[in-house]
Specification:
Distance between the termini: 23 Å
Number of domains: 2
Shape: elongated
Mean pLDDT: 94
Structural class: alpha+beta
CATH architecture of the largest domain: 3-Layer(aba) Sandwich
CATH superfamily of the largest domain: Glutaredoxin
């Protein structure tokens, strides 16, 4: 992410240190992760110590200090989804992408995470891709959904 774009995001929030989390969220949303050089620029512009920014960036799960894929895949492993076959959906995603939960593929296409609940238990097993919920998933349907994100 270039310095001008970082500065635009900071300026959008009037350069206020109290907007730090929102600035980081905006950068994360656009860039999919928070590179160290970006954090250094935010620190400089907002006059917030870098170690404080790093503490916040590592505390909240919404932030990533490593590159993430363009498509975020979340597989619900909560009880309702689990008993309806979430592990088969997860296995299918792992086989199709070559990654395990917590990983990103080398092409930066997909990042995979498991979650405890997505809040739509009646639709289990549930897979969420880029915030879009896909319910009552089967392994075959899982492959079809992933193809839509290539």
């Amino acid at each position: 992410m270039d310095i001008d774009r970082i500065d635009q995001i900071i300026d959008k929030h009037q350069g206020e240190a109290s907007s730090l989390i929102q600035v980081l969220l905006d950068i994360q949303s656009e860039n999919n992760w928070l590179p160290k050089a970006t954090l250094e620029r935010v620190s400089e512009k907002l006059a917030v110590p870098l170690n404080r920014i790093q503490h916040i960036a590592t505390f909240y799960k919404a932030f990533s200090l490593v590159p993430k894929g363009r498509h975020q895949v979340h597989i619900c492993m909560g009880t309702a989804c689990h008993v309806r076959g979430a592990s088969r959906v997860l296995d299918t995603v792992q086989d199709a992408t070559g990654i395990k939960p917590g990983e990103t593929d080398l092409e930066l296409k997909f990042s995979l995470e498991t979650v405890n609940c997505l809040g739509c238990c009646a639709l289990g097993p549930v897979m969420e891709v880029d915030g879009k919920t896909h319910g009552k998933m089967t392994p075959g349907e899982t492959i079809d959904v992933l193809k839509n994100y290539e």
